[in-house]
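LAB NOTEBOOK - FOLDING QUEUE
OPERATOR: T.R.
BATCH SIZE: 2
PURPOSE: Compare the predicted structure-token outputs for two unrelated chains run back to back under identical settings.
PRIORITY: normal
REVIEWER: second-year student, initials M.K.

ITEM 1
FIELD SEQUENCE / FIELD STRUCTURE:
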Amino acid sequence: MLKSFSCEEPGGSSTLKSLDFFANNIQRLNVSCFPALEYIRLSNNSKLELQADVFASNSRLKTLHLQAVRARALVGLSAETKRNLSSVAFSLFVEKSPLTICGVLKGMDQLNTIEVDLKGSRLPQGNSSLLDCPTPPVVVIKDAKLGNVAQLSLSKGNTSKLYLINCGLKQISRTTFDGYQGLTTLQLNENKVDIQRDAFRGLTHLTFLSFDKSKIRDIDPNWFIPLKKLTCLSLPKNAITELPPKAFSVLTQLEQLYLHFNLLKYISMKPFSKLRRLFKLNLSLNLIDFIEEGSFQDLTNLRYLDLSGNRIKRLTPSVLSGLINLRKFVLYNNRLHFRSYESPFINLTFLEFLEMNYQGPGGQGIGNIGPHFFQGLHRLTSVAIGHSIMVDFHPDAFVPLVNLKYLYIAGVIMKMTNLSAVFLPLKRLKRLTLFRTDLDVLPTNLMPPDNTLEILKVQSNHLHTVEKMMLDALPRLRTLDITENPLTCTCDNAWFKSWAIHNTQTQVSYLYNLHCDNNGRAPYLREFDDKACSYEHASFTLFISCSVTDVLFVCVCLAWHTQGPALRYLLLTLRAKLRGRKGKAGPKFQYDAFVSYSSKDEAWVVGQLVPNLERPAADAPRIRLCLHHRDFRPGTAVLENIETAIYSSRHTICVVTRHFLHSEWCSMEFQLASLRLLCDGSDVLLLVLLEDIPAHCLSPYTRLRKIVRKKTYLLWPEKPEEQGSFWEEKGRRGEDELAQLF
């Protein structure tokens, strides 16, 4: 606390205009070094003593505040200082002081404003006037106990603005303001006052009237009859329970009406009738739960309506009829509930601002914001909605809001909401707030492609990562607030950390206070070491490549294990085509027939087939055979030997037995011979069945079964006595017939 202030050297500051020493312990003062000083506040320095010439060097001083300072300090100032003052404020306990207000003001001829704190004083006995001297235009009297002034004339001055604040007024009568017929402003705040019906009879020039905190219970329309020029009426923080019919109808010039913080329970009987010039109406913080249809019918010029802090459950176009020029509508903290088909604001075509937060408790929540909810509100630029029990946004809810610039949604569950669809129409949106909306992720197409979003706030959600594509789709973004989200310090957010620190266009709010996982004990996001993440892409690519290779290898192995013959057949087919086997003219064959048989049937081939075909009787044709054990070239791959044998022979003889069917090599030889049959179109297969094989045994071998059914085949007799005649019978057919068989 300062005990003194002195500047001995003149010219300390030639430009300083204002000084405030409020609530110190200053006893001595010297401000001569501030020649440009215009305002000084010395209130609440109870021991202050001022010399008569203390402000001799401050010729521009106009305002002097000395509240809670002995009044004689002001009285003792030089005549020149007093003459220059235009505004003074001081305290005076008139009951115990020989000074009067007029005595203190003596010599202050240029005053425009006085403010007097009477410190709870009562009027002195025998004194019928508080001010018996000319008063300035603005008079403020505070903290007095004036009591019943029904017969007291305050003064005869040129005062146009009178403020009697907490002055203990108990009654106002027709004579109370007889000396103030020129009043334009009258403020009687914090007085428990009884107002007579003709109390304002002479105040025909009054434009502003205020009774804040005056415990008024009832309004008498007769009060306002003389106040034809009144433009502002303020009645907040009273105990008004109802508004009488046409309560303010005589105030045809009224522009502002303040009735907030009262006990109104309903609005009915058209209390605002004829207020066609009213542009601001405040009915907030009452107990209103019902508004009669047509109550606002005459408020055709109203621009601002505040119904917040009430208990309103329903609003319909009929209730809001007449508000055709409304610009700002405040409805937060009510109990509104809407159905999906409703359009409550359809007639408010000039509305620009709508505030609907905190609908509940005790209600059902806002309910459904349907496709027609904002119908007609194409001029709306700002919407605030949320903090409600239940809010459900239809995908087309915001379609009418083509000019919306500011959207605030908070305290609702939007996890299942299609944000991309809901925000698609908002191409002109500048600021979007999604506060505590239970979001786990933001879609990459959060806003339409040609959006103009500049500020995005998504505080207090469950976001773990920030998608690069989402931010890339917001080219005009200037501010991003993602505080109170559990952002993970992983490589998924490495790009975001770098982007937030180094980008010059978008500021990330409180970036250096963001903790990993929103845990105060965890490291800061900015301290996350993302060097290892630079290898992640290469590692991921290598991982994918190895994984694909492993999967392909396993698939090939499984396919070979389960479908080996088919695959081998396919390989042979491709190989045959590549070698150009098909379409060759005039081939030269090395063998007449290649014999395909199981090694378990080799005894029959060597003992029966070879002798009878290669070494027949003298009159039978000699046939050259190709046999595995005899004619395959050593050191050559088995598949290549088989292929060479088949394509070097005119025909292929398949010795079919159950052993043949179960042999993979025999199956391959048969498939390759069938391939030649398919490609050449010639009959190159001859089947010799050494045993009678039932049809069901041939079912798995589709190709073999078809040949058995459609072609002639040879069946080896089971009876020994018939086996000898088998070759003789074949020999008697002659060379042509045998050639046909082969």
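ITEM 2
FIELD SEQUENCE / FIELD STRUCTURE:
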Amino acid sequence: MVYKITQLPASKHITRSLQGLRRHLQYECLMCGSRLASNKQHQQTDQQTTQSLCEYCYEDLPLNIHCCRRCALPMPADIALCGNCQKELPTFDQALAPLRYEGAAKHWIRRIKHQADIATIQTSVDLLCDAISNQHHQPHQSQPSPVDAIIPVPMYWRKNLKRGNNQAYLLAKAVANRLQLSFYPNLIVQTREKPEQKGLSRHERQNLKGVFAIRKPIKAKHIALIDDVITTGSTMNTLAAICKAAGAKEVSAWALTRTPKPR
């Protein structure tokens, strides 16, 4: 049986979400609450993200500048492919994650996951769309074809009910609206609990068989999957394989953050 869950913030999160929106509308920094210089000044900047953050908090963001060009794994220098991708390329064709999952980015993700904070989601969409736009202006990288449709990484229905929202859905819907792309929120469903991936080897993480199911063939040529965090890449890899088996020719993996390789 497939359960369709309507994505609405739980009532306990509404007050915090409105507080975040109040900051956004009154031009206070989303992270520290300090007063921004002026709306007019921030509108003149090239990057949308700076409209919601003060100069200091923006500089404190763990930007994922040096990363693998295939899976977006943070790298110490500008190296084309990480060791894992050199050994075996993932099923998805390219990945994008503007932040490393550390420091301020972890706090950011918690606000989306557990508070469904409207202003944080909006700023996250700004950051993602900035990164997507910049991706098409990288002379040393092959340019991906235009994305036709966006699919959020699905969440198991029981977990969705417990938390009150699916952060991947919230991000994906907002990005689809911003970029004016087709949005397929219920095309792929999670049919059972996903095994814990943390601490498993690369081989052991290939344990997602049967966790996800697709409802019908995909007509869009290029699909973008969206999540808040790419941790190991296994979920994105599995979903990309499902999309390609259903008819997609190209699959991108987009996320707000990417977990660095353990040291």
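REVIEWER COMMENT (ITEM 2): The first strand starts at residue 94 and ends at 96.
FOLLOW-UP: none requested
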